[in-house]
Write a structure and sequence with these properties.
The structure holds two protein chains of two kinds. Chain A folds into two domains: about 1-105, no CATH class; about 125-245, Cytochrome Bc1 Complex, Chain D, domain 2, CATH 1.10.760.10. Helices cover about 50% and strands about 5% of the residues of chain A. Chain A is built from eight helices and two strands; from the N terminus they run H-H-H-H-E-E-H-H-H-H. Chain A has helices spanning about 1-30, 40-60, 60-75, 80-105, 145-160, 165, 200-205, 230-245; strands spanning about 125, 130. In chain A, helix 5 packs across helix 8 and helix 7 (about 200-205) packs across helix 8 (about 230-245). The longest helix of chain A is centred in the N-terminal third of the chain and has 28 residues, at about 1-30. Chain A starts with a helix and ends in a 7-residue tail after the last helix. The relative contact order of chain A is 0.09. The model of chain A has no long low-confidence stretch (mean pLDDT about 90). Among the domains of chain B are: about 90-315 and about 595-620, no CATH class; about 350-520, no CATH class. Chain B is built from 18 helices and four strands. Chain B has helices at about 1-40, 85-120, 125-160, 160-195, 200-235, 250-255, 260-285, 290-310, 315-330, 330-340, 345-365, 380-395, 405-410, 425-450, 460-480, 490-515, 535-560, 580-620, and strands spanning about 450, 520, 565, 570. In chain B, helix 2 packs antiparallel against helix 3 (about 125-160). The longest helix of chain B is centred in the last third of the chain and has 39 residues, at about 580-620. The radius of gyration of chain B is 26 Å and the shape is globular. The chains are: A mainly alpha, B mainly alpha.
Chain lengths: ~250, ~625
């Protein structure tokens, strides 16, 4: 019985860490929120926590026998018929409860999976021209002599058009930041432009939110189609500025 | 008379050896001569300046008409409909099964040769018997591989004739060489297997080993040759933008993904082959009637598990290289795989890989139960469980979380402040390196279980190892944390010192252990056969997880081409030219895995027959 209790306690402890510990830590990092572990992930976490506990308690022969003993006794001893029925009833009720929770009607909106950086097409059409995104490079990157001038001009384009959402620090916190969902990209973050090639940015800026593939939920993004307002040259210069200002290097591989 | 007979046998064996070498050299020499001739040809057709022709040596004379045709622009009606078949599903399943069996039959001879060599070096016949039994299991699989290969070729011709025509137009020569090499492989395999008892002593044994070596050379050549077709479909080279072959076969072969795929498949085959023979050993162990049988199959299962893990540990690094090259070749492919639609399959991959680590470690921990003296190390297992399960949870935490709208509100957006940071490469690299180091520690403890070091510097050696493991853990975690603060292009570079740290721990610790435990005192022999039955299910888990993984990740690699037969060159315009949903793809892969397992059980069953017959013969003597 000792091992079975040990197993239950261990599983409970890990459950509490996931159920309460992680949201508490998240709440500490982001005040005013209670970042729960999403149910879908919680199920997988718990499956492997239970598996880990069982593996730990059964690798040794004595421990495995001791863990299985109460289960064997309940199911194997004729004199424990009453207890057996109670255990079976609890398991059946629990199964019923889980099933009911999964099939009961819900008015909640369906889960939407939105890819933040969806894959670009191999080529894109802008200003009536076809651009091969597999080989496309920033023409101003190679022009070392005029680099500063071009980056500065890109900055002017940024502050005339982009900073309202993406912010004057390029951190995604512009004036309209809180009014849009998904939030404007934070270019300072190492997880955005720093891990993308310049051709990706060219495609994203040029075709804006409506140019996103379905996995990127184009109906949600507020990003304008900038090819309607900016020239090709201006877009390349603004890209140069984004990397120059943030200190990131575009991905080249 | 006897010695005269022996000398003739030896001469015969030697002649056979020479024959095998020539069988190999002729096709390879022929293929090399074609390559060299074409590579240095002055009139080589040439680059049209397209991206696919990067690095081409040849130059096409202006206005010269190429003997090769551009890739066709196919229409729906160009795809024959064979009633009762869905072309894509049929080719998908058959190709997958061919790959499963192909990987298995290519892998088994590699470690069989090594085990046979170990048997010869140690003069321990048990190794020889085990190697023989391993190759026996692969014999039926070899026939199944060949049958599936034939079926696949017919399916290509029947369902996708224009695609096959285009591929054959470029790779026709290599396809013929492939078929010739296959004859060589079959010949070597049959001589290797059926000549096992005959070529078992003295010089004959060396001939037998040489045949085994030739078998592997043929096998490896076959693998790298067929990889050229797959890698060309993903990242075509040696052609111009319209798909016209530029005439240099070597340029078409050495595409940017060829070598990463070669390496990844070679390592994965060993891990996969080890896991399948491990399942065979588990099956035999569970059905064993006598203690001797149990002991034999317990040992066989342990060896197979060792092979599988030995191949498995470097696999993530080969995988990283492959994905880096994929990203480098095409940003679209890279993002689709790792950040886009297929990212969810990588989460399933992470779950399966984590299960493999858990299964392999559990098998080792259970194995300590049959070793007297292991009690000294079992208290450490609870810490290993915590680290392994903890790293495993980090390893499969996705970057994009599936949340209900209520959960999104609770979290305060789609980005989780705690779990969000576990979904990136820094966390994944750290987790996988820690998993590998922990698994190696489990293995070390297992190996030490029945030994007491007698070297005068034992305490210093142990302290050194503790320091090594501690420093490695600190280094791996620190590099992982540092990765959060630097751009992606530098962050990816951090995986190298992390991997080097892991490899250093494995190599240096192994060396220290080897010297420290030289002439060690034994606490008793390993009691082979006294293994808990439940541990055998870990071996089944390993085989099934590996098979599933191969199917899933093979699908990802292949499906990255999306609606192209040959990426950006030959467009797929059949009715099936769309990427199926992940659930649909996973179902097809799972069906392939079921069929493979059913066929493998059949192969085990057939292998069982010959064992029974052997026993009857032995009993009658």
């Amino acid at each position: 019985m000792k091992k079975l209790i040990q197993a239950v306690i261990l599983i409970l402890v890990f459950y509490l860490i996931l159920k309460v510990g992680i949201p508490a830590l998240g709440s500490f990092l982001h005040h005013g929120t209670w970042p729960v572990v999403p149910t879908a992930l919680m199920r997988i976490y718990m499956f492997f926590v239970v598996a880990g506990v069982l593996l730990y308690l059964t690798f040794n022969e004595e421990s495995a026998k001791e863990l299985g003993k109460p289960i064997k006794e309940i199911y194997g001893s004729p004199e424990k018929g009453g207890l057996r029925m109670i255990v079976i009833a609890i398991i059946a009720l629990f199964g019923g409860y889980v099933t009911y929770q999964n099939v009961k009607p819900s008015f909640e909106a369906p889960i939407e999976l939105r890819s933040i950086h969806p894959a670009p097409p191999s080529s894109v059409e802008m200003w009536g021209k076809t651009y091969n995104l597999m080989t496309l490079t920033n023409p101003f990157r190679a022009d070392k002599a005029n680099y500063e001038k071009n980056a500065k001009e890109g900055g002017i384009v940024f502050f005339k058009n982009c900073f309202y959402c993406h912010g004057d620090k390029l951190d995604g916190k512009g004036h309209y930041y809180s009014g849009v969902s998904p939030l404007p990209a934070n270019f300072v973050d190492v997880g955005t432009i720093a891990q993308l090639q310049e051709s990706f940015l060219f495609w994203r800026i040029g075709t804006g939110g409506p140019g996103l593939p379905k996995e990127g939920a184009p109906w949600r993004s507020a990003m304008p189609i900038w090819q309607h307002f900016l020239s090709e040259e201006e877009i390349w210069k603004v890209i140069l500025f984004l990397y120059d200002y943030t200190g990131h290097s575009p991905r080249t591989f | 008379m006897n010695s005269l007979r022996k000398s003739w046998v030896n001469r015969f064996s030697f002649l056979f050896l020479i024959l095998f070498v020539f069988t190999l050299i002729i096709p390879m020499g022929y293929s090399a001569s074609i390559s060299l001739k074409e590579a240095f040809a002055t009139e080589a057709p040439a680059s049209a300046g397209g991206e696919h022709a990067k690095g081409e040596e040849g130059k096409k004379v202006e206005g010269e008409k190429s003997q090769y045709k551009p890739a066709s622009k196919l229409k729906v009606e160009d795809y024959p409909i064979v009633k009762g078949f869905n072309s894509r599903i049929a080719v998908w399943i058959v190709a997958q099964l061919h790959l499963f069996f192909g990987a298995f039959v290519l892998a088994v001879p590699i470690f069989v040769l090594v085990i046979e060599g170990v048997g010869l070096a140690t003069k321990d016949e048990r190794y020889d018997h085990m190697a023989h039994e391993f190759i026996k299991v692969s014999m039926t699989a070899f026939s199944i591989t060949a049958s599936l290969g034939g079926l696949l070729a017919f399916m290509f011709v029947s369902f996708y004739p224009d695609f096959f025509k285009y591929m054959a137009g470029i790779f026709g020569k290599t396809m013929i060489i492939y078929a010739i090499l296959f004859f060589g492989e079959s010949f070597c395999l049959y001589v290797y297997y059926y000549g096992w008892d005959r070529l078992n002593k003295g010089f004959s044994k060396w001939v037998h080993l040489s045949v085994g070596l030739m078998l592997n050379v043929f096998g490896m050549t076959l693998m790298v040759l067929s990889n050229t077709w797959a890698s060309f479909m993903m990242a075509p080279s040696g052609i111009d933008d319209s798909g016209i072959f530029l005439g240099n076969i070597w340029a078409a072969i050495r595409g940017p993904l060829w070598n990463p795929i070669n390496l990844h498949r070679f390592i994965a085959n060993i891990a996969f082959g080890g896991s399948v023979v491990g399942a065979y050993a588990a099956f035999k162990f569970l059905s064993a009637k006598t203690d001797e049988e149990k002991a034999h199959y317990d040992w066989m299962g342990y060896t197979a598990n060792f092979i599988a893990i030995f191949g498995f540990l470097p696999l993530p690094f080969a995988g990283y290289w492959l994905m880096k090259e994929v990203y480098s070749y095409s940003q679209q492919m890279g993002i689709t795989a790792m950040g886009g639609a297929f990212a969810w399959l990588f989460i399933i991959q992470a779950v399966l890989i984590g299960s493999l680590f858990l299964g392999a470690n559990y098998y080792l921990w259970c194995g300590m139960g049959r070793i007297k003296g292991s009690e000294r190390y079992t208290p450490a297992i609870k810490y290993l469980v915590i680290v392994i399960v903890g790293c495993f949870l980090v390893w499969f935490t996705p970057h994009t979380l599936i949340m209900t709208s209520k959960e999104v509100t609770q979290v305060g957006g789609t980005h989780h402040p705690v779990l969000g940071s576990l979904g990136v490469m820094s966390a994944k690299n750290t987790a996988v390196n820690m998993l590998i180091v922990s698994t190696f520690l489990s293995f070390m403890l297992y190996r030490r279980s029945n030994k007491i070091a007698t070297a005068s510097w034992t305490s210093t050696g142990n302290a050194l190892q503790v320091a090594l493991f501690t420093a490695a853990a600190i280094n791996i975690v620190t590099l992982g944390v540092y990765g959060y603060f630097i751009p992606a292009n530098i962050r990816i570079g951090l995986s190298i010192p992390q991997v080097m740290t892991t490899l250093t721990v494995i190599i240096v610790s192994s060396i220290i252990d080897a010297f420290m435990y030289k002439g060690a005192k034994s606490t008793g022999p390993i009691e082979w056969g006294k293994m808990a039955q439940r541990s055998q299910y870990a071996l089944f888990l390993l085989a099934i997880s590996f098979t599933w993984l191969m199917g899933l990740m093979g699908y990802v690699r292949s499906a990255l081409r999306q609606h192209w037969h040959v990426y950006t060159v030959l467009r797929d315009n059949s009715v099936d030219a769309f990427t199926p949903t992940l659930g649909y793809a996973a179902t097809i892969i799972t069906i392939s895995v079921y069929i493979f397992i059913a066929l493998v059980i059949f192969a085990f069953w057939i292998a069982n027959f010959s064992t029974k017959k052997q026993k009857v013969v032995e009993a009658s003597h």
